[in-house]
Amino acid sequence: MDRIPILKMGHFLLVTIQVDMYDRLALNLENDLINAVQAHESKGVLIDISAVSIVDSFMGRIIGNIATMSKIMDAQTVVVGMQPAVAITLVELGLPLAGVYTALNVEKGMELLQQKITEEAEFDIGEAEEDDDQPE
Amino acid sequence: MMISLNKETLKIVSEQDVVLFRQRLKEYASKIGMSLLNQTKLITASSELVRNILVYARQGEVIIEVVTDRLQTGVRVTFKDQGPGIADIPKAMQDGFSTNKSLGLGLPGAKRLVNYFDIQSTPGNGTTVTIIRWKR
Ligand SMILES: Nc1ncnc2c1ncn2[C@@H]1O[C@H](COP(=O)(O)OP(=O)(O)OP(=O)(O)O)[C@@H](O)[C@H]1O
Ligand SMILES: [Mg+2]
Q: What is the pLDDT at residue A30?
């Protein structure tokens, strides 16, 4: 009750939202996801909202929070399947979900996550090498 | 002249009432053949306004009506509460103004999403917001 299940898939967490969101449910999801990222040291979070027909400012802000918090814990967030009407409405409302990666579907979302994680890893290696170059 | 064809009043006390309200609203909007995009805008705007009732006035009521002015048909929603009211309405209508450390998007965002928006408020007496979204 009042909870959306979170699926662990290797280094990723997958959430499929299939019900109409209300504020309590959204807040619980935020908490549960952040705890799960920490507990499993996840590298990516995939949120499938293809079945969601309404995203208002509260839900939009929760998605933004999840992305920001995950980032702090070194995980990337991708939102997949946003319905065109939802995307248009969010922009008009004034909350265009800036800073959140989006993809067309779960498959594309997984690819994007994988790519983001590889980029991060390469960036880290690059930085480490730079450190090595520095004189003692 | 505006004619109201069909009318329903719902009490708003808890988030469960909000879930029910959004479902009923969707039924009304789809019954008159409102486009999916306009349905999404109407329900998203309503979601913002009904949250304001719960947050600032704790409770109130909403009236859903199918209205026509002979040229077009749409859904009118009235949000009524007897909460603290709003002292400075122009200020409350500004993007980013919030007394709740929130985004301050609810009122101005809702206004952008509908065809008609009216707000009446008396401090100490409550607030009434009326919106209309035409079918297309
Ligand atoms: N029904 C209401 N009763 C009393 N005050 C209200 C009501 N609705 C809005 N307000 C006042 O108007 C301000 C702006 O409302 P608005 O919905 O735009 O933003 P918010 O609720 O503060 O933030 P957000 O909706 O983005 O979470 C509120 O902070 C509040 O002071
Ligand atoms: Mg609000």
A: 96
How many angstroms separate the CA atoms of A28 and A33, rounded? 8
- How many angstroms does the Cα of residue B51 sit away from the middle of ligand 2? 6
Residue-level pLDDT at A120: 81
Residue of A nearest to B95 (CA): A94
Task: Look at residue B72 and give its three-state secondary structure.
Answer: coil
CA B15 from centroid of its chain's CA atoms? 15
- Name the minimum distance, in Å, from the CA of B99 to any CA of chain A: 16
Task: Flag residues of chain A having pLDDT under 70.
Answer: 1, 128-136
- Ligand 1 near B97 CB (within 6 A): yes
Low-confidence ranges of chain B (pLDDT < 70): none
For A6-133, which CATH superfamily applies? STAS domain (3.30.750.24)
Q: Is A23 on the interface with B (CB under 8 A)?
A: yes
Please report, for chain B, the start and end positions of each structural domain, with discontinuous segments joined by +.
2-134
Nearest to B48 among A57, A85, A86 (CB): A57
pLDDT of residue A2: 82
Sequence-distant (6+) residues with CB within 8 A of A104 are A80, A81
Residues B77-98: tens digit of each pLDDT:
999 999 999 999 999 999 999 9
Does residue B84 line the site of ligand 1, with CB under 6 A? yes
> Is A89 exposed, middle or buried, given 0-12, 13-18 or 19+ CB atoms closer than 10 A?
buried
Residues of B in contact with A87 (CB under 8 A): none
For ligand 1, say whether the CB of B53 is within 6 Å of any of its atoms. Answer: yes
What's the CATH number of domain B2-134, 3.40.50.150, 3.40.50.300, 3.30.565.10, 1.10.760.10? 3.30.565.10
Q: What is the pLDDT of residues B103-113, one digit of tens each?
A: 999 999 999 99
